[in-house]
Amino acid sequence: MSAISKRPVRPVNLLQPYFWLAPSLVLVVAVSFWPLAYALIQSFYRSNYLDLGTFTGFSNFQRFLFSEAGLLRAWNSFVLTAGTIAIAMPLGFALALLLNLPLRGRNLIRTLLIVPWLVSNTVAALLWAWLLNAQFGPVAEMLSHMGVVMPNVLTSPTWAMAALIVCNAWGSFPLVMVFTLSALQTIPKEIREAARMDGASRWQVFSKVTFPLIRNTTLVTAVLTTLHCFNGVTIVLIMTGGGPLDATDIMALRVFEEGFKLHRMGIASAGAVIIFAINVLFTIAYMRVLKSEHSA
Amino acid sequence: MTTRRKRPGQLTRLETASAYAALAIVLIFALLPVFWGLSTSLKMPLDIHRVPPSWLPPTVTLQNYATAVFDARFVGYLANTIFVVFTSLILSTTLALHAAWATVRFNFTGREGLLLLMWATIMIPGIAVIVPLYTVSVDIGIHDTLWVLIIVYSAWLVPTLVWLLRGFIAAIPAELEEAARIDGCSRIGAFWRVSVPLLKPGLLAAGVLVFVMVWNEFLIGYSLTLSDGNRMIQVGIYYFMTETGVEYGPLTAAALAAIVPIVVLYALLQRAFVQGLTGGAVKG
């Protein structure tokens, strides 16, 4: 180490790291930051397809968010995300705790439970739509044996959102499970056993010893699941297309439709900016929680 | 008191039984859609539309696979996807590998800032930039090519790959590279000759991440291409659903065919898979 670093540094060596980092940075800036900046500008213009068009102030934002349909859309995004979290987080977390127990065959079970994570959103939406098919699907058939007539889930304003939540949660819980399980496995068994020996109940061991040690992981998985669901278009597009009667119209889907079906790029960009802002707020809020955790 | 367990970690029979019961229920939830799709894909057309439906195909047929998967269009989508996967893999891993190495082995002004800048893009979701990306790609004439997909996918993968590979590079002692430099290698030459061969597990995890992300991606593939000849596999499946009225036999066969390569890869490379996915989960 010392023999080398004492050699006189030539200027080319000083520039070397920048040279190797530059291509990555250029690509990232060109494909992520630049389009974001463009969306921010375009969101203030009444665009005509590819032409930037005329400046219209905040009217695109008003039409995207601060209108009756816009507020419904925001509410739907919130319901879909909250519902997905409410299923995927406890389910993934409980599975991690179960699979951390000394059970025979747990590796096989873990392997099988990861499968939904490997399935693309396109295929997941297709498979769930077919599974819940009211005419030819097995779920409707099983319910009919119990005397329940299942409605056509995807065209029922009440049930369509529930179906989307189930499909989203199905694809999301393995991530929570895998992250939580790997965090649990970093905790030495002895710590928990010692607490048990000292007379702590199982619940006390969990709440006082185990959970504080994996809290950060839980937060990370919560953020990942939230943003994945909030920003996701594919499942909603394929299963319901935002219908019936806008009952499942979410903000991310609307950006897609404004942009690629209606070609109102200005409104689409306003939606994109709003979604980005929510992503940033959420990430910052989460980092705050992490920091307060460290200082406490 | 004889029934009392000896060690605190051990489970009673009742606890074991309830744990398995709970796991069984979740296993059914996790595998039911895939099982139902698989069963449908193996059924004769009449059996697919039979009421009441049967869990297993009364007569097993590969007809749906013949229709959907060996269809010239589907083979084209597969070829496109494989081409984009491998080209993105080479481009993004090459860029990220050198960026990761430079930021681990060199101490330079702005290092932390530039890394943060790169990682900040993780907060930019695809849906927030897709419309401008479309506009630009039309403007500069690369819309509806596979190259625009390769560029966008690589750009989105690079920050996560840098993150992933930095961990693996930092685990290799810098002294190894320095020893090679005494033998006359340049710094980058030493990295390639000494460290890169040791990075196989990291590169494997990176490869898995790129493969899964590109293979399963829909939004970009749909928005930035137009013609049938440039469709990726997920986009092709979407068009199968919307174009001809839904025919669930061939459709589930295509869907299963899209799952199989990932599941096979997962079965073969579990460790690298979990490393890649947990590293890659950052970008949704």
Query: CA-to-CA gap between the ends of chain A?
Result: 39 Å
Q: How many strands, which pairing sense, and closed or not: the largest β-sheet of chain B?
A: none
Percent helix among the residues of chain B?
Answer: over 70%
**Percent range for helical residues of chain A?**
over 70%
Radius of gyration of chain A: 25 Å
Kindly report the CATH topology of chain A: MetI-like fold
Estimate nothing, just give the exact number of structural domains of chain A: 1
Please indicate the percent range of residues of chain A in DSSP E strands (runs of 2 or more).
under 5%
* Poorly predicted segments of chain B: none
pLDDT averaged residue by residue of chain A: 89
Mean pLDDT of chain B: 90
Quaternary form: heterodimer
Report on the structure:
The complex is a heterodimer of chains A (296) and B (284). Chain A has helices spanning 2-5, 11-42, 59-64, 68-99, 106-113, 115-118, 121-131, 138-145, 157-184, 189-197, 202-231, 234-239, 251-260, 265-295; strands spanning 45-48, 51-55. Chain A is mostly helical and 296 residues long. Chain A has a single domain, classed as MetI-like fold, CATH 1.10.3720.10. In chain A, strands 1-2 form a two-stranded antiparallel sheet. In chain A, strand 1 (45-48) and strand 2 (51-55) form a beta hairpin. The longest helix of chain A is centred in the N-terminal third of the chain and has 32 residues, at 11-42. The radius of gyration of chain A is 25 Å and the shape is globular. Chain B has 284 residues and is mainly alpha-helical. The chains are: A mainly alpha (296), B mainly alpha (284). Chains A and B meet through helix 2, helix 4, helix 5, helix 6 and helix 7 of A and helix 1, helix 4, helix 5, helix 6 and helix 7 of B.
